[in-house]
Design a protein that fits this description.
The structure is a homodimer of 226-residue chains. Chain A has 8 helices and 11 strands. The first copy, chain A, is of the alpha/beta class and 226 residues long. In chain A, a hairpin with a 4-residue loop joins strand 7 and strand 8. In chain A, helix 6 crosses helix 8. About 6% of the residues of chain A have low confidence. The structure holds a DNA duplex (30 and 30 nucleotides).
Chain lengths: 226, 226
DNA sequence: AGGTTTTCTCAGCTATTTCTCAACAATCGT
DNA sequence: ACGATTGTTGAGAAATAGCTGAGAAAACCT
């Protein structure tokens, strides 16, 4: 899957590129509207991520021109927050979906998956490892039939871990996926949150198998053997 | 089900179209009265949503002409607010129901469902959670056999919550469904209205189970356990 | 036109969450 | 065994989410 990112802020463009590449998308980047338009019309992308405010040509303008040219590549438009009424205009211009900055990287991924009509990543909304269940539609977490109350960040972290069971996830990787792209999060913060999760899902279940493992020097992993 | 939307404001027409398509209706749009009239008389629609103020031919006029031509497709007429005395005229002209702009999308859907259901059973739905009942045809709410008086916004919010019992609904989600498209509603407004509802349906029933739950960081939920 | 109700925002308050820091513990290489 | 590196944890500061009373503005009703 090839994705074109049109975004003038290099920092943001780069984080998106790196993040998407880790998810095995092929990514090209354009830093202004006209470049974006040229690339979108000459190459064959599966998806275009288009910032609304761009030098040389506005995002809305780019979208309109592409549609006029009968290029129907799905477009996901980005705007700064507080421009809520742009939504209608954005969708009118031909965009297929719409996301306000700043956003969590996971949300961007979810929208991309939706637009690419990919079968949602085990989209039973219910993730399960051993006797631990996480339901993404009711936002509930259970272990051994006991409900566990998590804060939203704890939930996001656990969801991310559970979507990649038995895989080692580095702290940098976790930061990129669970926090916003521009969040300046120390690796220690991840350590602290892993600690919180352990207090809630492992420590009270001493009888059961411990689920969150530390792989010193590499990262964390949920599930699998010691 | 095929629906014809006759509305000259492209922005509104488009939002309605997108929204209805998401509900699996097939939607055609006409942007003025004569086009609307032509399409309505040549195609076979299940419902026509007709704006009152239209270029080339007034909504009322379109409705009258259709009825003269023995086309009895249900018509839902839209007017700008503050034109309340138009109601009689609108209904006289042959419209079956009547909605003032701006409206919440959920309300439009409810009316559409009502109109499309009319031939079969004209029974309004009754939603129930524990000892709380909400009747959408009489617009009445009861708890423990006591009638509770709600404003229309409160009613709309409660109806939305009760149509999704045991589900967590985020403030953004609630705004999108209970308020109208271009309403610029702060999340705090939802908090306030949830407060109003609590004052009326939970606080006076301290003995009973409390029904409206806050899930910090996620949203609100009606029904279900603490 | 005047009073009432409803809708919505604001500002202050509280509780919770988020995140960092720094001290401590565990592990690793030599 | 030793310092160096990496991970854990308690304490607390800062940020954020949610609740509520007050009130402005609009809509509604005679």
């Amino acid at each position: 899957m090839r994705i074109l990112v049109v975004e003038d802020e290099h920092k943001i463009a780069n984080s998106i590129r790196v993040g998407l590449e880790q998810e095995n998308y092929a990514v090209d980047v354009a830093y202004d509207g006209t470049d974006g338009y040229d690339m979108a019309s000459s190459e064959d992308y599966d998806l275009i991520i288009l910032d609304r405010m761009l030098p040389r040509m506005e995002g809305v303008e780019v979208a309109k021109k592409l549609r006029e040219k009968k290029i129907h590549t799905p477009i996901l438009m980005l705007t700064a927050k507080g421009q809520i009424q742009d939504r209608v205009e954005g969708l009118d211009s031909g965009a297929d979906d719409y996301l306000t900055k700043p956003f969590a990287f996971e949300e961007l991924l979810a929208r991309i998956r939706a637009l690419l009509r990919r079968p949602q990543n085990s989209m039973g909304t219910s993730l399960m490892i051993e006797d631990l269940t996480l339901n993404t539609s009711t936002f509930s977490v259970k272990r051994n039939d006991k409900y566990i109350k998590l804060s939203s960040k704890e939930f996001a972290l656990l969801e991310y871990l559970m979507r990649h069971p038995n895989q080692i996830l580095s702290k940098e990787h976790i930061i990129a996926h669970v926090w916003n792209y521009d969040a300046d999060i120390l690796p220690n913060t991840v350590e602290v949150y892993v600690g919180y999760l352990r207090n809630k899902i492992d420590k009270p279940f001493k009888e059961e198998k411990q689920l969150i493992h530390t792989l010193r020097g590499f990262g964390y992993r949920i599930g699998g053997e010691k």
